[in-house]
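quick one: cytidine-5'-monophosphate bound model?
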Amino acid sequence: MSEFNPQDVVVVFVLGGPGAGKGTHCARLVRDFDFVHLSAGDLLRAEQNRPGSQYGQMIAEYIKDGKIVPMEVTIALLRNAIEQSLKDRADSTATGWGNGKGRFLIDGFPRKMDQAVKFEEDVVPAQFVLFLECTEELMLERLLRRGEHSGRADDNIESIKKRFRTFVETSMPVVDEFRTKNKVVSVDSMADIDTVYDNIRKEFVQKLQ
Ligand code: C5P
Ligand code: MG
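yep, here:
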């Protein structure tokens, strides 16, 4: 049995290629729906930089090569972050919170089938998946622009090409699997930010009611 009941701990997986807009739209969803935003990539980067981490070097290498970090590490980071938020907000009166309840956007996870299966079995099954659709051409443009100031080791053309490849070969099968279960809400993420977000918001209003 999973650690949490999906009625209490609502999880939405936010997926899409690198540069599809996951982080941008999660920030707006946090503002409008009281979610806690957990970015798997951000959690991995924080662990990489944590003094004394036994995984730092490994994470750095995986990220630079655009490869998927072994799921044990990422799932442990997510599980800890969920437990911490539930503790911190145990007395919250916000919608969806309090008394062990909470709502989470898990951004950039699961990126590989084994992570999806293990997380849903052990931690909590997701309520649905938000999938942001975008062409590689536009994602490349966005990532190169972001790379001018992001300081990220993987926002360069060599790493980006590897990340696109991992996305197509390893991460898209996860989305396809959730599609067969009718759990995917797809939104076109190529228009301007406000237009895309407006469509996302409407979907969330429906799904969370
Ligand atoms: O989502 P983001 O672009 O921040 O992820 C950066 C990198 O972190 C990925 O390219 C991958 O190397 C690693 N990652 C991972 N498993 C995840 C999410 C991210 O290995 N579920
Ligand atoms: Mg991100």
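Helices lie at 22-33, 40-49, 56-64, 71-88, 113-122, 136-150, 157-180, 193-208.
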